[in-house]
Amino acid sequence: MPDDSRVSRPNDLEAFWMPYTDNRYFKANPRLLARAEGMSYFTPEGREVLDATAGLWCCNAGHGRRQITEAIQRQAGILDFAPTFNLGHPLAFEAAARVAEMTPAGLDRVFFTNSGSESADTALKIALAYHRARGQAQRVRLIGRERGYHGVGFGGMSVGGIGGNRKQFGAMLPYTDHLPHTHLPDQNRFTRGQPEHGAALADKLEDLVTLHGADTIAAVMVEPMAGSTGVLVPPKGYLNRLRAICDKYGILLIYDEVITGFGRLGTAFAADRLGVVPDIMTMAKGLTNAAVPMGAVVTSNGIYDTIVDASPAGIELFHGYTYSGHPLASAAAIATLDLHRAEDLPGRAAAMEPYWQGAIHALHDAPGVVDVRDLGLVGAVELAPRAGAPGARAMEVFRRCFDRGVLVRVTGDIIAMSPPLIVENHHVDRIVETLREAVGAVA
Ligand SMILES: Cc1ncc(COP(=O)(O)O)c(C=O)c1O
User: Fold this and answer.
1) What confidence tens digit (pLDDT) does each residue in 241-261 have?
2) How many angstroms is it from 150 CA to the middle of ligand 1?
3) What residues line ligand 1, using a CB cutoff of 6 Å?
4) What are the C-alpha distances in Å from 197 to residues 115, 161, 185?
5) Which of 63, 108, 110, 285 could cysteine-pair with 36, CB 3.0–4.6 Å?
6) Is 91 helix (H, G, I), strand (E, B) or coil?
7) Which of 58, 228, 292 to mutate to test the pocket of ligand 1 (most atoms within 8 A of CB)?
8) d(Cα 68, Cα 227) in Å, to the nearest integer?
9) Does the domain spanning 4-60+344-442 belong to CATH 3.40.50.360?
């Protein structure tokens, strides 16, 4: 008898150690997605699930876009891989130029990575290299913010401010500190768009300057709108104050635009919508519509020039990934940015925002709802936690919505939503009706 005990089976769930997942629960209660098209996923049984989260905040142009998949297929037949260390291939340069066209004026130098986490660590390293290049090697401190999420690398994790994301690992980077988060529920509950209260929280950066000395601080990194920790919308004026304090002390301002980039807030980037431009921005997700992994860091021309000019002949920045500017990712990025232009996806998001805002705020009186907030095509519905079981209620809502055909996202007791930018009114209605039913049922 042949021993088939080591033969893998297609529906064996054991080997895959799933990321950010309750593996034991999932493997006992799997929820699988097999196909996607437009606004929807489909389960292996063919059941439709409306995607209210654009995958993981990333499929901004909707799923299965033919222009993107064909560009990837075509490129795979032409050039599967080429190094970008001391060599190049045309699509990587074209993709970089296209990204630079989309970012705010003066932010024109594009370093490619493969993910948001790699972009965060790359941005932090560029900030350190920049200060060294201009003779300020003592500027090593990196300031983040409570409830900030910058991925899972040691840099992003240390600058990020999520306890659960750090406490399992112990060792964090030294020389970091954190601003307070900007979430003030008592003052700003049920605000539509940017809240009125909280700009002064940016002044806490002055306290960190007093504490550590401005000449030890390299950079401040924030999400212009924090997504992963539950949609924390920046108070009016907050980012302007942060920018002013950074300028006063020669500190670089880094935006993590991994979620907010590529039309999510109704403009190309959050920097455009919020009117405050950073020195460095990170991005990923929507860059390729998530069809091939790719991230990028875009810096001011001055940062690039400073690092390159200060370096003797040879490699100027000792940093890079085998897959930086990968041909398939570059092809996907160019096709995605074509779609953004052809369909004006940021403009579509802006046009949908009032309907979206009105629809989700109508949930303010649903049982257990303690806050609703939004910006662009992002929305959050926060529930009162169940006594002794934080997060349990929202997780039940997530499961109930999924079983009734709508995919939402959960973080703590917050339901977060970020539909593809091609969403239409009837999709919004279905999302909100399903959520209302689920919130009522688990109350
Ligand atoms: C703001 C932000 N930065 C970084 C990341 C990490 O990106 P990735 O999971 O691609 O490493 C995320 C992921 O959600 C994010 O939301």
Assistant:
1) 999 999 999 999 999 999 999
2) 6
3) 115-117, 120, 149-151, 223, 227-228, 256, 258-259, 284
4) 33, 21, 10
5) 63
6) helix
7) 228
8) 26
9) no
Q: Whose CA is nearest to atom 8 of ligand 1?
A: 116
Which atom from ligand 1 is nearest to the alpha carbon of 226? 1
Q: Which atom of ligand 1 is nearest to the CA of 117?
A: 11
What type of residue is 436? R
Q: What is the pTM of this model?
A: 0.97
What backbone torsions phi and psi does residue 60 show, to the nearest 5 degrees? -65, -30
pLDDT attached to residue 6: 62
Of residues 289, 279, 213, 293, the one with CA closest to residue 242: 279
Q: Rounded to the nearest whole angstrom, what is the distance from the C-alpha of residue 171 to the centroid of ligand 1?
A: 20
Q: Residues 237, 201: contact at Cβ < 8 Å?
A: no
Strands 35-37 and 217-222: unpaired
C-alpha dihedral, 213 to 157 to 413 to 360, nearest 10°: 80
Rounded Cα distance between 161 and 150, Å, is: 9
Helix 345-361 with 327-343: angle, nearest 10 deg = 70
Instruction: Give the chain's residues under pLDDT 50.
Output: none
CA of 443 to the centre of ligand 1 (A): 31
Distance 273 CA to ligand 1 centre (A): 20
**The predicted structure's pLDDT at residue 443:** 77
Q: Which of 60, 154, 258, 323 to mutate to test the pocket of ligand 1 (most atoms within 8 A of CB)?
A: 258
Ligand 1 centroid – CA 2 distance (Å) = 46
* Residues facing 409 on adjacent strands: 416
Architecture in CATH of 69-343: 3-Layer(aba) Sandwich (3.40)
pLDDT of 121-172, one tens digit each? 999 999 999 999 999 999 999 999 999 999 999 999 999 999 888 889 988 9
Q: Is 148 exposed, middle or buried (0-12, 13-18, 19+ CB in 10 A)?
A: buried
Strand partners, 110: 298
User: Which residue carries 């160019």 as its tokens?
Assistant: 334
Domain limits, the chain: 4-60+344-442, 69-343
